[in-house]
Every structure is written in structure tokens, then in C-alpha cells.
């Protein structure tokens, strides 16, 4: 860390300037960007204090843009929602968009450039660059980025390279798509990107693929999949063959655990049935062979309506064969030219850079929003090679591993602080509109490039982006900013031609253990590790927070004689074990991105299990997402792995908590039972009666709703220690259950019971019932007896055991900036107070105020969780209106209430999960 | 031996002997080294509890083991346990007075003192346990500008009143019984400032026949009032749990079962106190083996009722066949806390069965072991009532185990220290055995002997 105790390096004037700037920044708080920004909806009262305005912008994941809407109050962005016009958002969000708002205010962010001698000002960094680059043709200068899809940035890079022909641009994304691209090249002779139209897939076969899991495509895939399953008529069936349970596997109709090396055999068997001319006899365990037989049977009848997807961990040949298989199936797939114009291999280009650096052929390196020191395979000794570069600079938001290894680090502005643009995974371009001036003095990617190319013309970012989109006309520019999405930029499908039949060699599972290395559903490639909300978001499979354990199968655990939380050592790493049902034997799984060594106190928080479990250290020298063979050795020690849910299995009558139906089956009528709880409150006429219906069949457990609720309702993160004590503050939890008829996810917010057990037991009447059917908690009245939660059968109330709202998770850093994220419409709860889901009562009230002001009919408000849900599993509305969504869904044959027999008359109810087991389940 | 004489040695048939034996060790005499050591130790232990409570107030309930599912923990268990102990004193004084049990005379005073201390300590916990203890008075209906009242449907409000009325009543009852003895102390030679205090509190008691008559009548009337109050206070504690819909709590047997459990643990504490006071204050002549024998019989009876109550609880779970209740039962016997369940059955149901033997009823070591067993068993019961139900409720996803912290233990320990400390102080300023009632007993005994 740079030390302020070494001020010698900073000139006196600079210090004064910095102090003045700091004072100005703190006085100004969030100030508006220099150039005008345009809200998505024109609202003449929009500037009134406390009014929420919405602006179109874009959030990034893996270099791809997803359209977003920023909710801004008094110049402060407080929440991100989706953008209905953007195909990668469809109005919904994922976990990464939801957590991005906290990154903006994160006290861990870099605040000033720092050089070898400590904190310095921007001019010093500029001088350092100019002195090296002045008059150079860029020879020995390398720009390293992650995936770049931004047209403006790509144009800027091209401009710089035109001036400095020696400048190399290397792009390497941590979670690469090398295998997919190479697979397409093998099949079609050119790199193409496969875009499955899941909405048209009656049969979906996922070979070690997880389209419902994390990634830039998650929302689009999940929506299409859910839409297809919702559609009436022929049921959709999802088959999953995978080494370790993923969200797709958990949501699948049929799933089997399969060693990753055997996935190719399964695909070969499928391909043989489609006429490869080879025998389908491959080495598969009997249960997998039977499973594949059902897959083949189903695919045969689903020509034109079936898709086979292969995961990024599989080799290119398997992707190529899948392309052939899909073509034989006439699968609903679009092939597009890659959105990322750089066709080189992510892994190889980074390897070449490591090589060049080690050989001293790189004199200047600028790393722009990438963290290769974290994700490069350990055998490359990337950090050491980096040490040989005379001038290295990392532009990064956080003091990550790379920023700590380069000579200079400089703060990168957040996307809500910069002008820019980006393309979605389907090529759709969208604009990035800043909502505030950089809070911590960071510079945008475009501005960073201007420093690398000091000779170039220096229009500001705004002008550059505007020029990129030829928005010479003010009205046109305004329209672009209002929409955020640039029409007609989606890539048009190309005809790939006939796929070449590539036959990968059949493979055999090794006798030794291997480890699969998937991206983390909560931290992605490790970027989320600095984000307290992401860290505290439960893993969709293990429900672990603040770290990841090594997943192994029950059989392997028995063989090793280890249980949950027992530490094993392997290949120089040590990690606690989590036994996972449905994990393939002989395969362990360790998600990437956890156990960071730098990035700030959240990323390296005690309790996140430390660097010993950094999955990147298992990467072989050629990249990939499988470790070499490892031997797990139990140590006898234990580690604490905090989890929000410990029991997934429902046996006996408990299975009724999570009913699973066959297609077309209706929920059995619950027996009516005597209750002392009465018939519920009066329903005054003309008063809306709010209710929520959640379709468990559509829920993919992505946690977007959980964090959306957290952002909307000022819910603090409380840290691993508190979670370890069995406390959590999420108002909405996503339970995961398994039983003999199937499994899946069940989001559980407050049930807003009509005869709420929490209400009569409170001695001070803090929980009260509104005429609209809301069960409200009056925070000011609550004295914290916790009787309400003791009597809540759903256990959905949350208690402030400590001063969580003022809690300092950020170590020595002042947590004050995060308070700027808080929603002014929602009370910040004090210590000792009970809180709970309110159905976003602030949104309901805003809607009512709007209706009062305009005299028009009440527009049904949208709750934060509902807005976030990628699959639209959450429905909210007025039960008193028989035409409303919720009123109709309550008549659905799949409708049920949780613990209905208790007589609590919940307002939050569910649609049962549908699972199409199909024929031949017994064999599998 | 005659009936009354069983309860008093002939050496105590003389009024002066009684007065000397009881009033002698009070402030007039030297406290003694043992008393001082005991005071210091109990004060130190109280200090630990005060510090732990201070920590809880400074940082919040998060210092305890309570979690999102098991929102209640030690503080509520402590509350229920202490209030149970506080149940026996008034019961002994009132119910045994009404049923004319002569043996109550020797033990009722300290049992009542125990009640007041235990109820006072118990009364602290509903406040300590709050998330915002500074607003505890919101549970009381007091005039306020917002026109807010407590929630009358909440068992916790009933509880607030039950504790308050029980405490006030016990205080008055205790004081009423103390008046003739205070007058005795006032009239004896001794330190003048203490005599002045006793005198003020004796309210001008002269011991005239009219005064005695009024006193006796008032005491009997209060005893009649006391008996239902004793039952109500712990019934309502039972309703804190029973007026809910959680598995293991929604049981109509809870109110009576809590009352029995309460006087059970109260009697166990009385036995321990009797043994201590008897030897410490040299009152062997007045607290006779027959007293211990009688208390032991009470324990045996109560222990058997407890076994029946548990049995009916388990039976009702088995026969309703409710999944949640069955799971609760299975968890009680095989789950994480099953050790406590077996400890509870051992302490509350099995150990008291030793008292079928008359010899064991009078054996001091056995009495100590069984009484301590009951006190532990009842604590286990209190903590199990909370933890079993809340750890494994209806929603398996929310199942969470409870692990108390050091602060939890320190607060519990501290209340024990406070109890002992306060008792030690009381033992120096008031007679722990009622002199006038022993004199009465002596008269009866003399008559019987003659």
C-alpha cells in the first residue's frame, strides 16, 4: 500500500492541490457530470428534491455491455435496474448489475494514482508516461485489456496504433471463450459465435454447460428458457450432464453427474445416433449410458426443436462436434460473427505477453481494467515477468493483485462515472451515461488511453462517444441517450455453411482426482470479490457466503474420511470440503475468484478462507478450466464455512414445502382445517390488496432478486462472522430444496399473511396490518422482543443484532461513502430493531402518489425483486382486481401457499415447480 | 413424638431461646469470616454478570448466541428459570398456610425472600433481552402524546403485568409477615441505628391481641389471593410460548405444566437454601430433618408430575401425527440437543424417584444432589423449549442451531452471584426464620408434649 507517511515524493504544491481537491470533492458530494445527461423519461418535476429519475446506461460483465437503468435521486445513483430495450437485459438484471451500484461507492476504490514512491498526482503519472513515450513509435509498449466491445474504445485504440504502430493491444479475459471460438473454427473454418434460441427448444441438452448460470448471457438465456417452459402445449425438457451441480443442473428435468472427461463420450453417442457413421458404443457408466439413450430418444423426435450446448470447459473438438450435431438436428441456433473483434486466443496472447515481459521485450505496459496477475496460470510467473517491465501502470477500480504488482496504479472510473459505449453478447450497442462525476477522482478507460497516446487529439470522452455514433444533431444524440440502446446494431445471423464433422477421440476418466474450475456465480472471475453484497450473496448450489469450499461427492468424502468443513490439501492448496449431492465421483470443484490476496479488506476479509483456496492456482500452463490430477489429503483441521442454508433435503411430509408436479398435473386441494386465527382482516372496498405469486418453476436461483432487494431497501452486509453465527439480513432468501420428486429454488420473502402470527404477539404492536393487506413493521415502535420472528413459521423476519447499518466491514477505511447509496425512501434501521420485506412499500406509495397527483388510475408498482428477476418468476399486483396478473395466477392449477395448513393465509403464494421426467427415468 | 414436636427440638420450646437463636446472628453479632468470603465471591461473580450485561447494552444482543431462527436464547431461558424459582416461596407461605401445614413456619421466611430476589432477577431479563432495552416501558400503558397502547393480545404484555403484580404482591406479603419480627428486633438490645430502622419498618407494632388478630386475618386473606396469583404468573409464562403456532409450543398443557415445573425448581432451591441456612446460622433445632423430608416428598410428587407432563407432550405429538411435531420429537431425542433432553429427564424425573426411600429423603448429600439435579434439569428444560422449537421450525431452509456465547454464560452466572449476594445481605438484617411463628409452633408443641 502507498503510505501517506512518505510525502516527500509529492511536491508541496501537489499536496495542497490534493487537499483542496479532496475538500472540494467532499463538499460537492455527488456532483453532476460536466456534460448534460438525459433521463429516460422526461418528467417536469424530475429535478424536485427526493424524486427518483431514471437514466439509460450500461453495465459491464466480461467486456460485454448489458443495458441498464440507473435510478438517481438528487444526483445520487442509488440503484440499477434493467433496460427493457436491451436484449441482454430485457428489463431484468443479474447479480452483477445489481452489485455494481455498491462498487461505485466502495471505500476500497483507488483514490489517486500511486507510483513507486507512493501517492502521486495525475500530472506525475502523465509526466512519467510522456517521458517514455514522447516521440516513440510505440515499440515495446503494450496495452493489456480484458475483452473490449466498446466501439469508441476500439476506435481510440486503433487511432493510437495508427500513430504508434509498435503499440500492441493484447486482450485477455479471465473467463475466456477460446474453446467455443476454436470449436466453431474447426466446424466452419471461421470463428463464429453460437446463439441458441432457447425459446424454441423443446429439448435442451446441456453437456457440462450452464446457460442458466452466471455470465453475460444469463438473463437472455434464462428468459428464453423460462418463456419456453411457460408456454402451453408440449412441455420442454432439459437434460443436463455435468460434473458438479450448477443452476442449470438444479433446474433441469433430468440431470446426471458425469466426469468432465466423459462428456465427449456422451456427445459421441448422441452424434453416432445422428449418423456419424461410427458406432455409438462408447465408454460410459451404465447409468450415464441409459441417460444418453433417453436423450437420443428425445432428440430423435425433436428435429428443429432441440439444442445441444457444450460448456466452456470442454475442448474445441467437442464444441465442433456439437456444432455438427446441432446442424443435424436443425437446432434453433443463430451463428453470428464474434462481437469481440479480436480473434486471437485469450490464453495464448496473454502467454506471449508473459513471455515477452520475461524476456525484457516490453518497456511500457498499461493494464486497463484487467487482473492478469490473479488469473494467469501460476506456471507463467506473470507477476515476476511484470516486475521486469520498466514502466507498468494498472488502471483499476480497486487495489487488485495486478495493481499491486505494477509500478504505477491509477484509479479507473466506474461506468456510472464515465461516458462510453459497449456491445452486448449479441452485438447490440448501448451507451454508457455517467450519473456522477468520478467520486474518487478516477479516469475513464478512454481518458486512460489518452495518456498512453499523449500526442493524439484530446476531445473529451463525451465528444468522442458522440462522434462515434455520428450524433451531430442534438436531437439525435438526445434520443440515443434516452434509449441507451442503439437500434439496429444487433449482429445479423450469418449462414455458417455445412459443419465439418470433427470426431474427437473418446476419452476415459482418470483414476486420480481432478478439479473443475467454474466461474463463481457470485464473484464471476473474482471481480465481485471486492463487493460486500456479492460476497454475502449465497452460492446457488452450496449456499455458502464469503468464500467457497472444495465440492466433492459423498462417495469421495467417504473414501477420504472427510466431512463438511474438513480441510484437505492438494496441489499446494488447502481448502475446506463441502460434500455436494450430485457431484461426479473422482471430480472436485472449486469456483474461481474467491480467496483473493489483494483488492481491499472485503476481498481479503478474514473468513473468506484466504489465498489457500484460490482456484486460479490450479490452472495448467495452457489455461483451461480443469486442474491436473490431484490427490486430496485430509489434514484433520477444520475451517468455518458460513452458509445461509444447511439442509437441502426434504423428506417425508416436508416435501410438501416444495411441491413438484408432472406437466399438466394440478396441485392437490389442501384439506381444510380448523384454525383459531380467524378469517383475516377486513378488505375495505376500493383499496388495492397487494399480493405476490412466485413461479418456482421459473426460478433459476440467480440471486438477482436478493441483491436487488438489498440495494432497494438499504439492507447492510454483515460479514462472514455474523453469517457464521446464523444471522443474516437478506429480506428475501432463495431456498434450495431437493426431494425424491425433484428439486429447485424457492424464493421466500415475507408472506404478508392475512392472519399474521407475528402481529398479535408483539407487546408494543410494532407489526401492524395495512388496509391494503401489507404486514408492516413500525421500526420506531419496535423494542426488539423478537417474539414476532419466534412465532413466524416462515422465519422471514430479520433482526439487527448489532449496529449493522453502521457496521464497518471495510477495515480501516471510512465506510461513509456507502451511505450515499442508500435509498432515501427507506428507513435505515437501528440496532435492536426487527425488519422485514415490505413488498417495497415505498414503491407502492410512490405509485399511489403518482395516481393521486395525476388523477389517473393507479399503475401497479413493480417491486425491486420483481424488476430484477430475469425469468419473470415474481408477479406482484392487486388481488382485488380480478383481471390482475396475481389474481389470475392464484387460479392456476399449480398455485399453492406455503404452509397453507397453518391458516396464516399468506399473500405471497407460489406456483409449483413442473418437472418433466419423461420416460426411462427409472433406468437413469 | 407429637406432630408439632417433629418440627422443633425441645431446646427451642422457650421463647427466649428462639429469639436468641434467630435474632442473635443478625447485625448485633459479628459477621464472621465465612460470610465475608461468601460476600466477596458472590460480589465478584455479580461483577462478571454486570460487565457482561454492560457489554450487551453497549454492543447489542449480537453479543449473545441468538441467531435469525433462534431469536431467543439464554436471556429468556434465564427469565423462565428464575421466575420458576420465584414461584415456590409464595406457594409455601400461602398454600401451606391455608392447608395449615405447621412445617412451613421454619422455612417460609427465607423461601419468600428467595421469591422476591428470584422474581426481581427474573424481571430483569425481559428488559435485558430487548433489542432496545431503553424503551422497555413501552410495554406498560402510560399516557403518551401519540396515544399508543401496548398490544393487549400479546402474551408478553400479560407477562409484564403478571410479573409486576406478583412481585408487588410478594413484597407486601413478605413485609406483612416480617412486621412482628421487626418489632422484636426493635425491642431488643442492639445497634441503635439498626433498631431505629427496624422500628420504623415495624410500623408501631405492639403485639396487642387486636393487632395479632388483624395481622392473622390479613395474612390469611392475602394467602387466598396469593394462591391463584402463583398459578397465574407461571401460566402466563407458559402462554408466552403456547400462544403461538410453532411446533413444540402450541400445547394447551403448557400453563399447568409450567406451574408445576416452577414450584418444582423452587422447592429444589428451598431445599438447598434450607441446608445452607441451617448449618450456617446454626438453626438445626428449627429446621429439622422432618422439614427436609417434607420438601423431598414435594420434589418427588412434582418430579412425577413432570414425568407425566413430558409423557403427555410426547404422546400428543405421536398421536396427532403432525409432521412438524413428530420432527420436533425426533429432534428432541436424537438431535443436537438430545444430551440436554436426557439430562433433563434424569434431573427432573428420575433423580427425585430416589425419594421413595425415607432414608434418602433425610440424607443431606442425596438432597443436595437431587436438588441440584432438579435445578439443572429445569434449566435444560427451559433452554430446550426455546432451542428445539426455534432451531427446527417449519422451514428446513431456516434451520439453525443455537450456540451460547461467553457473554450468555457470564450473564447467567452473574445472576446467580447477585442472588447469593443479596441473600447474604438479607441474612444479616432480617431474621430468615420467622420468630413469632416458631414461638407459635413452640406453644403448640409444648401443649402436645404436655
UniProtKB/TrEMBL annotation, chain A:
A Pfam family matched in the record: Fer4_7
UniProt-listed InterPro entries: 4Fe4S_Fe-S-bd, Asp_de-COase-like_dom_sf, TAT_signal
Domain 4Fe-4S ferredoxin-type: 690-721
PANTHER family to which the protein is assigned, alphabetical: GLUTAMATE SYNTHASE [NADPH] SMALL CHAIN, GLUTAMATE SYNTHASE [NADPH] SMALL CHAIN-RELATED
Protein name as catalogued: 4Fe-4S dicluster domain-containing protein
Organism the protein comes from: Sphingomonas chungangi
Species classification: Bacteria, Pseudomonadati, Pseudomonadota, Alphaproteobacteria, Sphingomonadales
From TrEMBL, chain B:
Localisation per UniProt entry: Cell membrane
Organism domain of life: Bacteria
Positions of transmembrane segments: 35-59, 79-98, 110-135, 155-178, 221-245, 257-277, 298-319, 331-351, 363-380, 400-426
GO cellular component, one term: plasma membrane
Record keywords, A-Z: Cell membrane, Membrane, Transmembrane, Transmembrane helix
Major location category of this protein: membrane
Gene3D superfamilies referenced in this protein's UniProt entry, alphabetically: Formate dehydrogenase/DMSO reductase domain (1.20.1630.10)
Name of a matching Pfam family: NrfD
Membrane topology designation: Multi-pass membrane protein
Similarity field: Belongs to the NrfD family.
The protein's name in its UniProt record: Polysulfide reductase NrfD
Native source species: Sphingomonas chungangi
Amino acid at each position: 500500500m502507498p503510505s501517506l507517511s512518505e510525502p516527500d515524493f509529492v511536491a508541496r504544491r501537489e499536496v495542497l492541490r490534493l487537499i483542496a481537491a479532496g475538500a472540494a470533492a467532499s463538499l460537492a458530494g455527488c456532483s453532476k457530470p460536466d456534460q448534460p445527461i438525459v433521463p429516460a423519461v422526461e418528467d417536469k418535476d424530475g429535478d424536485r428534491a427526493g424524486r427518483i429519475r431514471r437514466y439509460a446506461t450500461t453495465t459491464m460483465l466480461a467486456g460485454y455491455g448489458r443495458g441498464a437503468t440507473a435510478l438517481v435521486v438528487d444526483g445520487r445513483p442509488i440503484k440499477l435496474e434493467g433496460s427493457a430495450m436491451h436484449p441482454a437485459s430485457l428489463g431484468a438484471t443479474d447479480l452483477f448489475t445489481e452489485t455494481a451500484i455498491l462498487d461505485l461507492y466502495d471505500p476500497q476504490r483507488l483514490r489517486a494514482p500511486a507510483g513507486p514512491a507512493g501517492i502521486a498526482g495525475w500530472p506525475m503519472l502523465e509526466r512519467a508516461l510522456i517521458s517514455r513515450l514522447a516521440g516513440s513509435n510505440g515499440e515495446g509498449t503494450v496495452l493489456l485489456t480484458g475483452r473490449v466491445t466498446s466501439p469508441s474504445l476500439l476506435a481510440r485504440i486503433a487511432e493510437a496504433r495508427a500513430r504508434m504502430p509498435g503499440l500492441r493491444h493484447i486482450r485477455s479475459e479471465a473467463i475466456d471463450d477460446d474453446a467455443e471460438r476454436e470449436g466453431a473454427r474447426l466446424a466452419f473454418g471461421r470463428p463464429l459465435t453460437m446463439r441458441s434460441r432457447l425459446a424454441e427448444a423443446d429439448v435442451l441438452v446441456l453437456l457440462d454447460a450452464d446457460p442458466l448460470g452466471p455470465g453475460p448471457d444469463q438473463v437472455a438465456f434464462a428468459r428464453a428458457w423460462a418463456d419456453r417452459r411457460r408456454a402451453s402445449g408440449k412441455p420442454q425438457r432439459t437434460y443436463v450432464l455435468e460434473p458438479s451441480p450448477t443452476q442449470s443442473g438444479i433446474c433441469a428435468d433430468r440431470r446426471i453427474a458425469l466426469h468432465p472427461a466423459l462428456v465427449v463420450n456422451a456427445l459421441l453417442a448422441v452424434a453416432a445416433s445422428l449418423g456419424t457413421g461410427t458406432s455409438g458404443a462408447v465408454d460410459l457408466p451404465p447409468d450415464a449410458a441409459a441417460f444418453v439413450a433417453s436423450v437420443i430418444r428425445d432428440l430423435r423426435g425433436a428435429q428443429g426443436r432441440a439444442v445441444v450446448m457444450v460448456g466452456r470447459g470442454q475442448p474445441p473438438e467437442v464444441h465442433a462436434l456439437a456444432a455438427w450435431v446441432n446442424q443435424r438436428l436443425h437446432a434453433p441456433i443463430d451463428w453470428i460473427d464474434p462481437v469481440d473483434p479480436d480473434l486471437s486466443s485469450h490464453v495464448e496472447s496473454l502467454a506471449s505477453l508473459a513471455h515477452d515481459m520475461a524476456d525484457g521485450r516490453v518497456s511500457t505496459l498499461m493494464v486497463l481494467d484487467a487482473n492478469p496477475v490473479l488469473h494467469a496460470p501460476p506456471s507463467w510467473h506473470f507477476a515476476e515477468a511484470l516486475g521486469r517491465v520498466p514502466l507498468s501502470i494498472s488502471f483499476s477500480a480497486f487495489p487488485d493483485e495486478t495493481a499491486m504488482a505494477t509500478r504505477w496504479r491509477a484509479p479507473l472510473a466506474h461506468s456510472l462515472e464515465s461516458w462510453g459505449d459497449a456491445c452486448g453478447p449479441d452485438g447490440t450497442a448501448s451507451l454508457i451515461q455517467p450519473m456522477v462525476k468520478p467520486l474518487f477522482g478516477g479516469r475513464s478507460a478512454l481518458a486512460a488511453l489518452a495518456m498512453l497516446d499523449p500526442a493524439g487529439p484530446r476531445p473529451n470522452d463525451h465528444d468522442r462517444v458522440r462522434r462515434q455514433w455520428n450524433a451531430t444533431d442534438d436531437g439525435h444524440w438526445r434520443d440515443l441517450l434516452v434509449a441507451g440502446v442503439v437500434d439496429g446494431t444487433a449482429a445479423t445471423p450469418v449462414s455458417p455453411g455445412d459443419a465439418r464433422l470433427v470426431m474427437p477421440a473418446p476419452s476415459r476418466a482418470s483414476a486420480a482426482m481432478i478439479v473443475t474450475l467454474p466461474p463463481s456465480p457470485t464473484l464471476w472471475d473474482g471481480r465481485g470479490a471486492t463487493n460486500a453484497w456479492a460476497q454475502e450473496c449465497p452460492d446457488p448450489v452450496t449456499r455458502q457466503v464469503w468464500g467457497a469450499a472444495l465440492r466433492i461427492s459423498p462417495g469421495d468424502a467417504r473414501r477420504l474420511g472427510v466431512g463438511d468443513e474438513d480441510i484437505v490439501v492438494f496441489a499446494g492448496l488447502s481448502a475446506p470440503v463441502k460434500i455436494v449431492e450430485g457431484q461426479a465421483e473422482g471430480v472436485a470443484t472449486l469456483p474461481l475468484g474467491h480467496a483473493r490476496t489483494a483488492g481491499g479488506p472485503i476481498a481479503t476479509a478474514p473468513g473468506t478462507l484466504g489465498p489457500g483456496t484460490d482456484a486460479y492456482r490450479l490452472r495448467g500452463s495452457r489455461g483451461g478450466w480443469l486442474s491436473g490430477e490431484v490427490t486430496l489429503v485430509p489434514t484433520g483441521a477444520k475451517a468455518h464455512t458460513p452458509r445461509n442454508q444447511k439442509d437441502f433435503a426434504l423428506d417425508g411430509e416436508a416435501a410438501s414445502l416444495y411441491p413438484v408436479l408432472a406437466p399438466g398435473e394440478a396441485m392437490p386441494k389442501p384439506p381444510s382445517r380448523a384454525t383459531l386465527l380467524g378469517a383475516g382482516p377486513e378488505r375495505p372496498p376500493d383499496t388495492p390488496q397487494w399480493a405476490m405469486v412466485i413461479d418456482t418453476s421459473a426460478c433459476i436461483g440467480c440471486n438477482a432478486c436478493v441483491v436487488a432487494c438489498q440495494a432497494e431497501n438499504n439492507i447492510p452486509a454483515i460479514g462472514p462472522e455474523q453469517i457464521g453465527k446464523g444471522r443474516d439480513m437478506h429480506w428475501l432468501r432463495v431456498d434450495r430444496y431437493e426431494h425424491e420428486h425433484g428439486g429447485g429454488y424457492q424464493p421466500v420473502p415475507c408472506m404478508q399473511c392475512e392472519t399474521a402470527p407475528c402481529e398479535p404477539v408483539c407487546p408494543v404492536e410494532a407489526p401492524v396490518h395495512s388496509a391494503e393487506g401489507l404486514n408492516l413493521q413500525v421500526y420506531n415502535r419496535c423494542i426488539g422482543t423478537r417474539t414476532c420472528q419466534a412465532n413466524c413459521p416462515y422465519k422471514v423476519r430479520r433482526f439487527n443484532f448489532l449496529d449493522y447499518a453502521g457496521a464497518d466491514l471495510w477495515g480501516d477505511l471510512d465506510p461513509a461513502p456507502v451511505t450515499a447509496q442508500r435509498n432515501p425512501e427507506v428507513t435505515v434501521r437501528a440496532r435492536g430493531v426487527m425488519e422485514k420485506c415490505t413488498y417495497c412499500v415505498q414503491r407502492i406509495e410512490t405509485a399511489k402518489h403518482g395516481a393521486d397527483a395525476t388523477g389517473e388510475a393507479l399503475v401497479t408498482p413493480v417491486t425491486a425483486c420483481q424488476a430484477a428477476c430475469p425469468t419473470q418468476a415474481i408477479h406482484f399486483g392487486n388481488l382485488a382486481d380480478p383481471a390482475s396478473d396475481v389474481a389470475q395466477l392464484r387460479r392456476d392449477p399449480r398455485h399453492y401457499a406455503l404452509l397453507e395448513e397453518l391458516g396464516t393465509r399468506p399473500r405471497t403464494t407460489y406456483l409449483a415447480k413442473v418437472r418433466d421426467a419423461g420416460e426411462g427415468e427409472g433406468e437413469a | 413424638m407429637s406432630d408439632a414436636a417433629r418440627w422443633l427440638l425441645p431446646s427451642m420450646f422457650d421463647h427466649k431461646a428462639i429469639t436468641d437463636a434467630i435474632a442473635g446472628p443478625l447485625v448485633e453479632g459479628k459477621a464472621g469470616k465465612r460470610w465475608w468470603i461468601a460476600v466477596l465471591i458472590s460480589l465478584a461473580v455479580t461483577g462478571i454478570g454486570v460487565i457482561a450485561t454492560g457489554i450487551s447494552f453497549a454492543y447489542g444482543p449480537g453479543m449473545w448466541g441468538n441467531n435469525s431462527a433462534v431469536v431467543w436464547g439464554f436471556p429468556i431461558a434465564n427469565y423462565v428459570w428464575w421466575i420458576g424459582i420465584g414461584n415456590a416461596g409464595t406457594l409455601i407461605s400461602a398454600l401451606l398456610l391455608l392447608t395449615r401445614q405447621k412445617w412451613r413456619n421454619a422455612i417460609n421466611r427465607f423461601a419468600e425472600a428467595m421469591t422476591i430476589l428470584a422474581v426481581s432477577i427474573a424481571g430483569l431479563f425481559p428488559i435485558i433481552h430487548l433489542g432496545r432495552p431503553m424503551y422497555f416501558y413501552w410495554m406498560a400503558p402510560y399516557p403518551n402524546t401519540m396515544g399508543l397502547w401496548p398490544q393487549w393480545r400479546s402474551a408478553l404484555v400479560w407477562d409484564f403485568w403478571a410479573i409486576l403484580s406478583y412481585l408487588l404482591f410478594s413484597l407486601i406479603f413478605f413485609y406483612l409477615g416480617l412486621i412482628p419480627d421487626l418489632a422484636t428486633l426493635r425491642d431488643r438490645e442492639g445497634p441503635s441505628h439498626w433498631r431505629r430502622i427496624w422500628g420504623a419498618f415495624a410500623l408501631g407494632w405492639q403485639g396487642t391481641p387486636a393487632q395479632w388478630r388483624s395481622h392473622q386475618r390479613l395474612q390469611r386473606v392475602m394467602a387466598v389471593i396469593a394462591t391463584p396469583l402463583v398459578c397465574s404468573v407461571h401460566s402466563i409464562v407458559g402462554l408466552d410460548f403456547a400462544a403461538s403456532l410453532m411446533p413444540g409450543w402450541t400445547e394447551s398443557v403448557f400453563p399447568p405444566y409450567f406451574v408445576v415445573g416452577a414450584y418444582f425448581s423452587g422447592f429444589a432451591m428451598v431445599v438447598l437454601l434450607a441446608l445452607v441456612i441451617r448449618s450456617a446460622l446454626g438453626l438445626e433445632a428449627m429446621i429439622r430433618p422432618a422439614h427436609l423430608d417434607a420438601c423431598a416428598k414435594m420434589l418427588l410428587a412434582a418430579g412425577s408430575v413432570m414425568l407425566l407432563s413430558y409423557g403427555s407432550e410426547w404422546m400428543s405429538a405421536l398421536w396427532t401425527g403432525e409432521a412438524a411435531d413428530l420432527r420436533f420429537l425426533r429432534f428432541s431425542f436424537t438431535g443436537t440437543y438430545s444430551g440436554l433432553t436426557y439430562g433433563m429427564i434424569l434431573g427432573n424425573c428420575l433423580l427425585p424417584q430416589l425419594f421413595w426411600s425415607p432414608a434418602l429423603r433425610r440424607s443431606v448429600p442425596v438432597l443436595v444432589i437431587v436438588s441440584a439435579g432438579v435445578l439443572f434439569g429445569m434449566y435444560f428444560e427451559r433452554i430446550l423449549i426455546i432451542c428445539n422449537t426455534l432451531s427446527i421450525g417449519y422451514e428446513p431452509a431456516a434451520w439453525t442451531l443455537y450456540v451460547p456465547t461467553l457473554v450468555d454464560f457470564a450473564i447467567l452466572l452473574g445472576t446467580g452471584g447477585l442472588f447469593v449476594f443479596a441473600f447474604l445481605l438479607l441474612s444479616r438484617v432480617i431474621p430468615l426464620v420467622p420468630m413469632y411463628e416458631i414461638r407459635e409452633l413452640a406453644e403448640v408443641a409444648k401443649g402436645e408434649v404436655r
